[in-house]
């Protein structure tokens, strides 16, 4: 009976720890890079084409290297420099394409032209 009680306690602690870890992992993107409804906005740029970065997205309301997103895929219709976008994204651990090492590599989950 005591072994069953101990196993139950261990199982409950494990489940609680896993839930907390999932919640922390979901925190992801800083709030300054997203609007209140979960969408981020930015502008397509080609400023770093010489560095191997065909296109990057410069986030609104952010500065520095963290302000750049390197989309894994983006429709050619939306890839024109100067295009303003509204989008949802998640970071990825895929290697950077080509020789582009700038910005955070992301997968765009939803994209709208502004």
Report on this structure.
The longest helix is centred in the N-terminal third of the chain and has 24 residues, at 2-25. The protein starts with a helix and ends with a strand. It is α+β, with helices and mostly antiparallel strands and 114 residues long. Helices cover 21% and strands 28% of the residues. It has one domain (31-113): OB fold (Dihydrolipoamide Acetyltransferase, E2P) (Beta Barrel). It is elongated. The protein has one helix at residues 2-25; strands at residues 40-45, 56-59, 68-71, 84-91, 104-113. The chain is built from one helix and five strands. A hairpin with an 8-residue loop joins strand 2 and strand 3. A five-stranded mixed beta barrel has the order 1-2-3-5-4.
Compact summary:
The chain has 114 residues and is of the alpha+beta class. The protein has one helix at residues 2-25, and strands at 40-45, 56-59, 68-71, 84-91, 104-113.
CATH architecture: Beta Barrel
Through-space gap between termini: 64 Å
Principal-axes geometry comes out as elongated
| Overall average residue pLDDT | 76
List keywords for this structure.
single chain, 114 residues, alpha+beta, OB fold (Dihydrolipoamide Acetyltransferase, E2P), 1 helix
Secondary-structure blueprint of this entry?
Elements: H1 2-25, E1 40-45, E2 56-59, E3 68-71, E4 84-91, E5 104-113
Parallel strand pairs: 3-5
Antiparallel strand pairs: 1-2, 1-4, 2-3, 4-5
